[in-house]
Amino acid sequence: MCWYCRSCCRAQSGWDISKAIKKDVVRTFESLDDVADFYQIDALELHKTITSYNHAVETKHDTAFNKPIVRSATPITTPPYYVMRLWPKVHYTMGGVAINTKSQVLDFKGNIIEGLFAAGEVVGGVHGASRLGSCAITDCIVFGRIAGNQLAQNK
Ligand SMILES: Cc1cc2nc3c(=O)[nH]c(=O)nc-3n(C[C@H](O)[C@H](O)[C@H](O)COP(=O)(O)OP(=O)(O)OC[C@H]3O[C@@H](n4cnc5c(N)ncnc54)[C@H](O)[C@@H]3O)c2cc1C
Prior knowledge:
Layout: H1 2-5, H2 8-13, H3 18-22, E1 27-29, H4 32-39, H5 43-59, E2 81-83, E3 104-106, E4 112-117, H6 136-154
Antiparallel strand pairs: 1-2, 3-4
The structure holds flavin-adenine dinucleotide (FAD).
């Protein structure tokens, strides 16, 4: 049904994922066995995982990962099942070499290492303890330009 009406996903979760379904980013299945079959994963393990998740939702306590259970979470019990593949990816690295405001790399004692400049992912400390989302490119461009200007002036 949802392949055609493209609205039951919204009715259940409040989210409109119809575009994701249309592009096959999110896929729709009528049973967990179909999910396991499509993604070639162990069906028994999938059933166990869903049971464990449902228990966590019902008890509001996730013993497996200690993940906070949001108030709106509901057990996964009835089809259609909306599924998408997810996997972890490094988004940004907070660590790296120290630089000053001229993009010059500093040694352990905070002294300038002459002729060495850095910007972007290779640099640490620019954002403090936690990066404000979406500001990495700004950091790369600003310090990259400064490094370039410094190098041009040194020529
Ligand atoms: C999924 C994702 C989403 C993101 N979204 C945002 C966002 O919305 N806003 C934002 O601001 N930031 C975002 N970021 C972070 C941002 O994209 C990166 O911080 C930024 O692109 C880093 O740029 P960079 O030039 O420092 O490093 P990189 O882009 O990693 O460039 C390093 C380059 O060096 C090359 N290289 C590595 N080793 C060698 C070698 N030995 N010899 C020659 N070349 C080498 C690599 O191939 C690469 O091309 C996102 C990152 C990810 C992964």
